[in-house]
Amino acid sequence: MEIPRIIAHRGSPRAAPENTLASFRRAAADGAKWVEFDAALTVDNRVVIFHDDTLERTSDGAGLVCEAPFETLSALDAGSWFAPEFRGEPIPTLEETLETLTDLDLGFNLELKVDPGREVDLATYALPIADACWPAEAPTPLISSFSLQAVAAAKELLPKWPRGFIFNQRPDDWAEIAKTLDLTTLNGNHQHLTSDNVAEMCRAGYAVLAYTVNEPARAAELFAWGVKAVFTDIPGEMLKAAA
Ligand code: G3P
Ligand code: MG
Question: In a 3-state reduction of DSSP, which class is residue 19?
Answer without folding.
Answer: coil
